[in-house]
Amino acid sequence: MKAMELKKDKVYSYLKNAIINGKYIPGNKLPREVELAQNLGVGRITLRASLNRLEQDGFINRIHGKGTFIAQEPATHTATATIMVVHSSDAGFELPWHYVVPEISRYAEKNNLKSFITTDTALQMFSDFEISSFVKANNVIGIVAVMNNFIGNELILAKLRAAKVPVVLAQARLHDTEVTGFAGITIQQKEGWDVAIAYLKESGHKNIAVIGNTDEFGFREYSRQEILACLKKNGANPNERLLKQTSFDKKNINLTVRDLFSVKPFPTAILCFSDFYAIYVYEALKEMNLRIPEDVAVMGTCGFPDAKLLAPPLSTIDYGYAKSAETAVEMLQHQDKWFAPDTQLGKLKIQPFKLRKRKSTEIK
Questions:
Q1: Which residue from 327, 323, 321 is spatially nearest to 97, judged by alpha carbons?
Q2: Is it true that 2-76 and 80-187+322-333 share their CATH fold?
Q3: How confident is the model at residue 52 (pLDDT cuts 50, 70, 90)?
Q4: Domain boundaries in the chain?
Q5: Given the DSSP bridges, would you call strands 82-87 and 140-146 parallel, antiparallel or unpaired?
Q6: Which CATH number fits domain 80-187+322-333: 3.40.50.300, 3.40.50.1010, 3.40.50.2300, 3.40.50.620?
Q7: Which of 15, 154, 161, 351 has the CA that lies 20 to 30 A from 232?
């Protein structure tokens, strides 16, 4: 019985959101029950329970002998639909949520939607009942979660599921949709670095240093051996000594850059794990009286919006923070495209990256 109730709730939420988002036009007739049940992948008993609730809530009118019609003025049409935005409570300025969340709010407002912003830590303070009650009371049509790299047992996942609305991961890793069941937007990070290395090689650089983070696959999902193979494939020097892994820390990055220039061959280009790593690489090179790009080219990864303010402006593989935000909102507006109606399991969208060529890699 519990499974039946869960399924009918999902069908109710799906149809309600479809009505609110305009997929079903006020006054139009819904398909016959047998056809609608088949389209949604549920039984007629489940569908009828969902339709009963929709009728009680004023979304549909059932006319004997004629069929089921979308109400001309559903009750919640007068209440603005809301998108809940949940981001990490970690405060480091290098974290994507700082740049994605404002864009979500901006794009939601542009589309006449409200946005309610909270953190994972705050959401975990509330009971499942409190969360679901808030969602219903505030006409929340879905959640955008700006966090990633889940293993499946995180408490925040249980809290997001308690809302009983579709969830989109705006900065997902490739495995996140499978682990969570949520929809997601991701970048093919390996392909991004392949493009970056090919571009640097075409710009005349053979000794390319690559600075990754401290994870096992810290070179944007490449392992050490894989990134060496990528360098070789693109005609660059696969020199193990030019591969460095360090935490995002100003002092550690400074020491890493100095180590790169302690033994020949010196790198003529440095590819950084992120634009934020590149900021500290700039500082280290300046202290060493090395010019960018005359002595060494520097390239970032991620598309930090302010990277173009660096002197010289930073070349980067741009992940498109603003585009991720826009896409996340659109996925919640068109849930029938991104979420299965019977299970509500979400799909993964691969978002293209862009190679931004700026003066930090300019050929003199």
A1: 321
A2: no
A3: confident
A4: 2-76, 80-187+322-333, 189-318
A5: parallel
A6: 3.40.50.2300
A7: 351
The string of pLDDT tens digits covering residues 94-150 is: 999 999 999 999 999 999 899 999 999 999 999 999 998 899 888 899 999 999 999
Non-local CB neighbours of 172 within 8 Å, separated by 6+ positions: 148, 182, 184, 185, 186, 348
Comparing CA positions, the residue from 65, 70, 64 lying closest to residue 21 is: 70
Q: The CATH number of 189-318 is which of 3.30.1330.60, 2.40.128.110, 3.40.50.2300, 3.30.70.100? A: 3.40.50.2300
State phi, psi for 276 to the nearest 5 degrees: -75, -40
User: 2-76: what CATH class?
Assistant: mainly alpha
Q: How far apart are CA 20 and CA 58, in angstroms?
A: 12
Q: Report yes or no: 168 and 184 within 8 Å, Cβ to Cβ.
A: yes
Collect all residues with Cβ–Cβ distance below 8 Å to 127 and sequence separation of at least 6: none
Q: What is the pTM for the complete model shown?
A: 0.78
